Amino acid sequence: MRQSGHYALRPMRATSQYRVRGAANVPGVVFFGFVALLEIPSLWSPGKGGAISIVMAALIVAACFALTIRSFRSGLQISSNEVICRDLLRTTRWPRSTVTRFEPRPGRHGAVGYRRLLLWIIFTGGNEKRLGLVNWSPKSEIKATLIVSDLNRALDS
Questions:
Q1: N or C: which end of the chain has fewer CB within 10 A?
Q2: What is the mean pLDDT of the chain?
Q3: CB neighbours of 90 closer than 8 A, spacing ≥ 6?
């Protein structure tokens, strides 16, 4: 396992997969897990709401647990036959043969438009796609370059 800043490239032993997870996973896991744990007691003591309150609490607990797991699993994964990008709400898969390389490029990210180094995926036909899930501070260009070189090495192997 190679640690570089807030990201870790982890080789998965059994399936020859590589996964990049960022520190951005932690707030989602903590928040959704905390909300789910706060709602569990209302399943047994609904108060004046009765059955509707129990149903709503059960839906909130189920949704928060699902989002906790989804937050934990989000990241970029390179398996033996495909590249998978898991976000909080969406999973995108590309065949490994169509991905040429990864590149860090400066750009704006988020609602406020923070200047970040964003991960771009370059396809064989020359198409490019920005992956905002994995990004770095402009000050940590060396860390971004190390992680992207590891990703490209994992993609070539």
A1: N
A2: 82
A3: none
pLDDT band at 117 (very low <50, low <70, confident <90, very high): confident
Distance, CA of 11 to CA of 153 (rounded, Å):
12
From residue 42, give the alpha-carbon distance in Å to each of 6, 31, 52, 84: 36, 18, 11, 37
> Which among 7, 35, 32 is positioned nearest to 21, based on CA atoms?
7
Helix, strand or coil, per DSSP, at residue 80: coil
Segments in the chain forming alpha helices (H) = 25-39, 51-73, 141-156
Indicate if the alpha-carbon torsion angle 16, 128, 7, 36 is positive or negative: negative
Token code pair at residue 12: 């998965």
Neighbouring residues of 20: CB distance < 8 A, sequence distance ≥ 6: 7, 8, 9, 10, 75, 76, 77, 134, 147, 151
* pTM assigned to the model: 0.72
Q: Is the pLDDT of residue 112 over 60?
A: yes
Please, which pLDDT band fits residue 8 given cuts at 50, 70 and 90?
Answer: low
